[in-house]
Design goal:
- By secondary structure, this protein is mainly α.
- Helix content is 64%, strand content 2%.
- The chain contains 13 helices and 2 strands, in the order H-H-H-H-H-H-H-H-H-H-E-E-H-H-H.
- It has helices spanning 14-25, 38-57, 59-63, 72-97, 103-111, 129-146, 155-183, 187-206, 218-223, 231-249, 274-281, 288-301, 303-323, and strands at residues 259-261, 266-268.
- Strand 1 (259-261) and strand 2 form a beta hairpin.
- Helix 4 (72-97) runs antiparallel to helix 7 (155-183), helix 6 (129-146) runs parallel beside helix 8 (187-206) and helix 6 (129-146) packs antiparallel against helix 10 (231-249).
- The chain is globular.
- The structure holds Phenylacetyl coenzyme A.
- Residues 46-47, 50-51, 54-55, 58, 85, 116, 118-119, 134, 138-139, 142, 145, 206-210, 215-218, 221, 227, 231, 281 line the site of Phenylacetyl coenzyme A (FAQ).
């Protein structure tokens, strides 16, 4: 695997900087060949690669339930959803590659445990109802966070997000529908749905990142039109959406302190356990070790596919050269 260094702008390019500033001020788009400040490139690579890793690691909690889905229809839907997440990972790795880092390098960082991915995927999926809670809450939070990213200033990222968001909407809908069916079923099924919502609610709120006061990247990312809203703004918006939808489900959110603050126009909620969030980010969440081990195994199992593809590409190149 060949490590490819991240492209770094070493010289101050006055014209390039002026052009970059103009594009950002016009709320237009930076494209891969445009000059961009090294810090902008670095921040995008960080966010997009983390996002790609999240999609790939995020396949695991649901993939565990494909063989245990309660019907053929549910199995087919869940399989399609998990495949969509793989596709999202690929769009995002491709977008990140336009910034100068190879996918091999990004994958190497992930399996070496050097790269971050979303905290949410370090929690276990214990019952079938968790498929509903993941779809409704986790994909719901993902949509809330990602719709504004469709307008991100970096062209390849924003365009990838448009397609991802369309697919996430279907994912959220299928999760909602699983929970609705369970909630209208037997008392045991309804309890299973409530239990899943209770467990996934707080971790899904943490997906939006640390509180604004503790978010070192937000200010600059917003100035560069990568992020459009702060972590707390999006979290609050998400809580407001879920408060409405949970009533339709006939379930409750496990937080009695949710209320709308008419002065700030923000939905308020109980303080989250940020110590738990830090533990998960430090690799000490309930499933961190298991998720990485599974990813490493999958990477090793896929070695023959990569080798076969590389050998085929080499043969094709030789054939094309000799024909020329
Ligand atoms: N988990 O300064 P900030 C999905 C890190 S996709 C882990 O606020 P930023 C689809 C952050 O990286 C879910 N780490 O950072 C699906 C930074 O660390 P660093 C993924 C987190 O970037 C559904 C540090 O904390 N979505 O679910 C988390 O401005 C179902 C300081 O934080 C995206 O990646 C976290 N939750 O804002 C798939 C969306 N939060 O790098 C399968 C794109 C923060 O300095 C099944 N990303 N950190 O060492 C973003 O919007 C942003 O990167 C945020 C964080 C909002 C996540």
């Amino acid at each position: 695997m060949e490590a490819q260094p991240v492209l770094v702008e070493t010289d101050v390019d006055t014209d390039g900087q002026a052009n970059f500033d103009r594009i950002i001020a016009q709320d237009s788009r930076i494209e891969p060949r445009d000059w961009m400040p090294a810090a902008y490139r670095k921040t995008l690579l960080r966010q997009i690669s983390q996002h790609a890793h999240s999609e790939i690691i995020g396949m695991q909690p649901e993939a565990n339930w494909i063989s245990r889905a309660p019907s053929l229809k549910r199995k087919a839907i869940l399989m399609a959803k998990v495949q969509d997440e793989a596709g999202h990972g690929l769009y995002l790795y491709s977008a990140a590659e336009t910034l100068g880092q190879s996918r091999d390098q990004m994958m190497a960082d992930l399996i070496a445990g050097k790269a971050r991915y979303s905290s949410i995927f370090n929690y276990p999926a214990r019952s079938w109802a968790d498929m509903g809670a993941i779809g409704w809450l986790v994909d719901g939070a993902a949509i809330c966070n990602q719709v504004p990213l469709c307008r991100a200033s970096y062209g390849p990222y924003g365009r990838a997000m448009v397609r991802v968001c369309k697919e996430e909407s279907f994912h959220q809908r299928q999760g909602f529908e699983i929970l609705l069916e369970l909630s209208q079923g037997t008392p045991e099924q309804k309890q299973m749905a409530q239990d899943a919502v209770n467990r996934w609610y707080a971790p899904s709120l943490m997906m939006f990142g640390p509180p604004d006061d503790d978010s070192p990247n937000s200010r600059q990312s917003m100035a560069w039109n990568i992020k459009r809203f702060s972590n707390d703004e999006l979290r609050s918006r998400f809580v407001g959406m879920m408060v409405e939808q949970v009533r339709v489900l006939g379930l409750t959110l496990p937080d009695s302190e949710i209320r709308f603050n008419a002065d700030t126009k923000m939905w308020e909620h109980s303080e989250l356990d940020w110590q738990e969030f830090k533990e998960v980010l430090a690799g000490r969440g309930p499933c961190n070790a298991q998720r990485l081990e599974r990813r490493r195994d999958a990477h090793d199992d896929g070695a023959w596919v990569r080798e076969a593809a590389a050998a085929y590409a080499e043969r094709q190149a030789v054939a094309t050269e000799s024909a020329a």
